[in-house]
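Dear colleague,

Thank you for sharing your sequence with our group. We've completed the structure prediction you requested, and as agreed, I am returning the results in plain text so they can be pasted directly into your records. Please verify that the sequence below matches your submission; if there's any discrepancy, let me know and we will rerun it promptly.
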Amino acid sequence: MATSSVVPEAYLQNTPASPEWLNKGDNTWQMISAALVGMQGMPGLVILYAGLVKKKWALNSAFMALYAFAAVMPCWVLWAYKMSFGHRLLPFWGKPGLAVSQDFLIPQTVLPSTQYKNITAAAQPLYSTSTMVFFQFAFAAVTAVLLAGSVLCRMSIKAWMVFVPLWITFSYSVVAFSIWGGGFLFQWGIMDYSGGYVVHLASGAAGFTAAYWVGPRLQEDREEFPPNNLLMTLAGAGILWMGWTGFNGGDPFTANVDSSLAVLNTHICAATSLLVWTCWDVLFFRKPSVIGAIQGMITGLVCITPAAGLVQGWAALVMGITSGTIPWYSMMCLSKKLPLLQKVDDTLGVFHTHAVAGTLGGALTGLLAHPDLCSLFLPVPNSKGAFYGSQGGLQFLKQLAGACFVIGWNVLVTSIILYGIKLFMPLRMTEDDLKIGDDAVHGEEAYALVGEGQREKSTKNGGNHDGLELHCPSV
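Please find the predicted structure tokens below.
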């Protein structure tokens, strides 16, 4: 495809608005799916973060998510899309290039799988490249927003503003190209239907690493961190859950039976996981927790993501049971026993809800992926889970090896990026800013008393934002 930023006049004159190859139904579904994924980040995660943190951090947490969502777009269209889905530069990285010229955006999408020999070409999307650029942008943006959940309430906003473009460039694009864009893991046959590795394992591993380098919150915030608005948190969680319809339903790149199956499996697993997590809470803590239910919902959604259109309905139920159990154990038990998990302050537990659940989902995909369903989606021949033949055992080992690469690359690159930023500016806010919160960082507050404008009286006098806070059930 041409990459020139100058559009030939003859090209535009000879390109109808609805060319013969365009399938309006597929194009409509793909743009709706992209919008649903985008809404998971903005407003979904923005308001989820705002409600889930302590009152004095509501605005800062929401702003970190909002900034990340916006900052990814210019990076994506100027160089990162082609690094993720363009021609190969290295076995794990694509060549950077512009994705803003009309002679690139208007023609039909060409999948990277068609560039490689000995690989069966996937179904060719019947819509323009601009649709694909927008759809994949939404995934990249949500990944950056998820990562923010690990470093909320202490990372310097200036350091975060520098970090996001660098991480999208040197970390996200590498994993995306390696698994989805035709890189070495793609050719090796790693299964990741819709981002269990590319989005969730990557954000969980990178977030945990960033939390280590940035350091913990104030001790008083770690010991007492009540969410300021659980109803707002539930609203954000609801947008996240329903938005996953497009997250998994859009990845066959067409409105077909595999897309429908992926949507149904997504909600089966999410609902089952939420119920199982809630049951564990009741069994061990004697009361159901709203936050626990949300965490169970998220782990179910994450776990099914690499397998959504590759497994049968009964397998989605099994994955829901495991995703409501294993991440629950890692968060509620292991995090209180293992020294590393105690030392690293992962604010919202992204390691457990995304890294653990993403790894679990990828491994279960290697066990439960049905060969007939794989043939509807995967461009790699003879793909199947270990339960469906001897070759499937090798697939399970491949899935684990792929997870190791994603974890290793994100730990390494995230560490290098943050160390480099640290040479020029602090990664953390000052101690005074950490004590005050939003008012010190932004000069604004989420909740102002009637007649007090942006600030409460206590903040005008330099007071701590301790006011009335909503306490959630203990988990």
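Summary note from our side: The radius of gyration is 22 Å.

Kind regards,
the structure core
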